[in-house]
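Per your request, structure below.
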């Protein structure tokens, strides 16, 4: 013990202690740091090669041979697998024609091809990964909290119940009633078209799942009966004006006819 106490004052002691502290900190971080969970299986070199072949055949004309982007389309370096999976699985890419916004259509690639293409683009630079099944499981979400989050962040474009709506310059916010849970999550994560990006710092993964739970709940129908297109106070006010005022006028005419 005396020998150890004497070595505490050695000139190399601070350096040794610093190295030990760094070693312990690095070890703890490696053990405790959260890993980014994805729904993807580990991509192999074959997946990436096949994805590159598909990219050259279907995407390079607009996005460039190395996905570096052109005057026609943006760079895909760093967009991540989630962006590719969303755009390709919904048929938005490859784009059918130039326009203010890519429209959803039947996908041109099957799930395996989509996964290969996503693996290739993901290999070009780090970006959002495809979410896990647990992250998009609506049954695990809180629809009440999801309703609050949706109305705060999304309703101004997509309508309070996700019915969609018109935007400026020929763009639109699509209805969300038939969008898969995975693509709802990926849309929030990657911000396609005119939609802003809601990364995990804006809306946490659990909150994204709450929003998905709320949107899935809307598919059960309206508890109040006729939805009137779910267009909110405009359609409801028009209904009240036409039907309500019409009934009042009809009642006034009937009363006048009876009294004459």
């Amino acid at each position: 013990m005396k020998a150890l106490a004497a070595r505490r004052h050695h000139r190399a002691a601070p350096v040794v202690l610093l190295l030990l502290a760094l070693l312990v900190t690095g070890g703890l971080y490696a053990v405790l740091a959260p890993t980014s969970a994805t729904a993807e299986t580990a991509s192999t070199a074959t997946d990436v090669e096949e994805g590159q072949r598909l990219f050259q055949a279907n995407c390079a004309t607009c996005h460039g041979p190395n996905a570096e982007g052109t005057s026609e389309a943006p760079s895909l370096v760093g967009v991540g697998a989630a962006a590719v999976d969303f755009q390709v699985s919904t048929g938005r890419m490859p784009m059918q024609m130039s326009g203010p916004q890519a429209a959803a259509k039947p996908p041109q690639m099957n799930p395996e091809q989509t996964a290969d293409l996503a693996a290739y683009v993901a290999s070009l630079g780090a970006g959002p990964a495809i979410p896990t099944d647990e992250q998009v499981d609506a049954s695990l979400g809180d629809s009440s909290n999801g309703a609050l989050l949706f109305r705060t962040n999304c309703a101004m474009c997509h309508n309070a119940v996700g019915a969609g709506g018109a935007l400026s310059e020929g763009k639109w916010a699509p209805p969300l009633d038939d969008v898969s849970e995975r693509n709802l999550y990926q849309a929030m994560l990657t911000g396609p078209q005119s939609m802003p990006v809601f990364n995990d710092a804006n809306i946490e993964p659990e909150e994204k799942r709450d929003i998905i739970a709320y949107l899935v709940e809307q598919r059960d129908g309206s508890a109040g009966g006729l939805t009137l297109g779910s267009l909110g106070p405009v359609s409801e006010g028009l209904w009240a004006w036409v039907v309500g005022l019409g009934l009042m006028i009809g009642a006034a005419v009937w009363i006048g006819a009876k009294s004459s």
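Residues 34-41 have pLDDT under 50 and may be disordered.

Regards,
D.
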